[in-house]
Amino acid sequence: MASGRVQTFNQARGFGFIEPDDGSGNVFLHIRALAEGELPGELRDGTPVTYEVEQTERGLRATGVRILVSEELVRLAGQVIRAAEELGSFLRVRGWDIDV
Is the pTM of this model over 0.70? Predict the structure, then answer.
């Protein structure tokens, strides 16, 4: 399994390229190459991914692409959850019964 970052991805056209972490040549990435359960909207320039490489007549193509979750994203998600819990507590103190 190879790893790299999305170098350029055109959401409208559904394709782009991955720049491999090992410095080898860019790998073609098509929206249909995403592994089951991956969300196409998450493919942006710089997104870290893992993938398999397939040689085609036109060059290297990525298959089974999985989007990696960065530590920064996990940290930010934790902050959002804590803020939502604090907001829920604040509203309950004021008589609002809201689940967050």
Answer: no
| Contacts within 8 Å (CB) and 24+ apart, 64-71 | 64/33, 64/35, 65/18, 65/29, 65/33, 65/34, 65/35, 65/38, 66/35, 66/38, 67/34, 67/38, 67/39, 67/42, 67/43, 68/3
Which strand (E) or helix (H) includes residue 88?
A: helix 71-93
Task: Convert the pLDDT of each residue in 50-98 to its tens digit.
Answer: 999 999 999 999 999 998 876 667 778 888 888 988 888 887 777 777 6
CATH number of the 2-67 domain: 2.40.50.140
